[in-house]
Amino acid sequence: MSKVLALCETPYQIIVVSKIISTFYKNTDVDIIITNHISGGEELVNRLKKSNLFNDAFYLKTKNLKRNAKIDSLLNYINKYLRVNKLLKEADYRNNKYNTFLFCNIDIVSQHLITFLNRHSTVEVVMFEDGLSSYTELYGKFFRNYTESINILDKIRYRLLRGKFSLIEGIYVFNPQYVEWKSYFPIIGIPKITKKDEKLIQELNQIFLYTDSRNEYNYKYIYFEESYFADGYAVNDIELVNKISQLVGKENIVIKIHPRNPINRFKKYGYNTNKITSIPWEIIALNMKLEDKVLITIASGSVMNPLIIMGMNLNAIMLFNYEELKAELLNDLIKTIELICKENTDSYSLPVTFNELKQRLLLS
């Protein structure tokens, strides 16, 4: 029987892989590795083991060592090499040979896994998308380094040190039409996750411990905080939310806190905020009616994903063009988001002035 090994380093990646294997690998044993980049991963891996989606699940600690010396990058490389080797021995990968390796992150862990897996059999190496960033031209620049003429240092970096990524045979994405870069391997479309996928949604609910009683979004307006604060960037999002709440009423809006932000910045201003950050927004969206909600954000992928991966019609307001916004935006990502928004004007509004924002809110 064919066997597949999948590596996931975020909850979103687990959702994407679940749809891929339930579509393309129905009669295949699929094992999954999750890393300690996922909060609560040790408990999560036990639920993955019990899931009907996966044959087995493994937990891999991969976070970097301290970065306070020049040798740390080498230690980190060796550390991950040893950890990956140990984990694969536990999975008895020499006797249980994998036919396919599914992964998302172009990093040391993926590189080591490809190396080890190919020692004992020829493994098909296939990527899958990691949200909107996977569609951007910036993402495609990495792969061009394997096909274009480059300098000596880049040849060492991409042909020798990262040469295993040249083995990639395809990438799964939900929307091939939005991929902005040219690929030397096939781009494979993933069917959208819809409410008709009842068995898949039930499995995902159990994996992420979702129940209707844990839905904290019974408000008309949902504002999605982003990771600016966690990443050390200045942003005037609280100021923007204050203006929005003056128009719609503070009692009618809830702030979805970004899970990586260390403190709840909105609570002290009297805003309703979600308390549970361990359930991915995509799981919540699959279990609720979004038609009656107004989703608001600067440029959060969470507001794009119900359209991108679920094909839902939305009522969303994106503020990345708003004249009063003060934030450092990722231009390549914004370009992709803006393109998708302008092709789906029935779901997304892009106000520039306060009057446009006010009109849009009052019409919703």
Structure, explained:
The protein has 364 residues and is of the alpha/beta class. It folds into 2 domains: 3-208, Rossmann fold, CATH 3.40.50; 216-363, 3-Layer(aba) Sandwich (Rossmann fold). It is 35% helix and 15% strand. It is built from 12 helices and 13 strands. The protein has helices spanning 11-24, 41-50, 72-90, 108-117, 137-144, 152-161, 198-207, 237-248, 281-286, 301-308, 331-342, 354-363; strands at residues 3-8, 29-35, 56-60, 100-103, 124-128, 168-173, 187-189, 221-224, 253-256, 272-273, 294-297, 316-318, 348-349. The strands form 2 sheets. A 7-stranded parallel β-sheet has the order 3-2-1-4-5-6-7, sandwiched between helices. Strands 10-9-8-11-12-13 form a 6-stranded parallel β-sheet, covered by helices on one side. Strand 2, helix 2 (41-50) and strand 3 form a beta-alpha-beta unit. Helix 3 crosses helix 4. It is globular and about 65 Å long.
Please tag this protein with its features.
12 helices, 6-stranded parallel sheet, Rossmann fold, 364 residues, alpha/beta
Total of DSSP H or I helical runs spanning 4+ residues: 12
- N-to-C CA distance: 53 Å
Question: What's the average pLDDT?
Answer: 88
Main pleated sheet:
7 strands, parallel
Any idea of the CATH class of the largest domain?
Alpha Beta
Write down the domain tally: 2
Specify the helix fraction band. Answer: 25-40%
User: How does the overall form come out from the CA principal axes?
Assistant: globular
Topology-level CATH name of the largest domain: Rossmann fold
* Rg over alpha carbons: 21 Å
Count of extended strands: 13
**Approximately what portion of the residues adopt beta-strand conformation?**
15-25%
